[in-house]
Amino acid sequence: MKTSPIIALRQGIRAVVSADLALMEALGGRTIFDEPPRQTPTPHILFGESQLRDWSCDILCGAEQFFTLSVITTHHGMALALSLSHQLHERLTTTPPEISGHRLIDLSCLAIETKRDAAGRFAKVNLRYRATSEYL
For residue 34, which phi and psi values (nearest 5 degrees)? Predict the structure, then answer.
């Protein structure tokens, strides 16, 4: 049975982030959550929405993913969230994740978006990525 490209990529991204000591220190030792446990302190990173499409052709069986990584803080202003998102993006581009059962062909950041929740408590930076891979 083939590994889901979404699960495999998330595992690879977690490994890359966990290996970055400076980023892990800035996150207070927390890694990336699918959903943070209640009362999880900030800053932290969340896996957001994902979309998977078939990317196969005559010579390979592949997958195309669109996914979001969100950096969330409770600091006033966006400076910390933007700084952490920059660190995260730099790490992913200098050390592309290894994805079990797949070969990563491309990982591109498509957009960066800043947001605040309605109450103004949380600053959030969404990094929107596109990844293409082939099944091994």
Answer: -75, -40
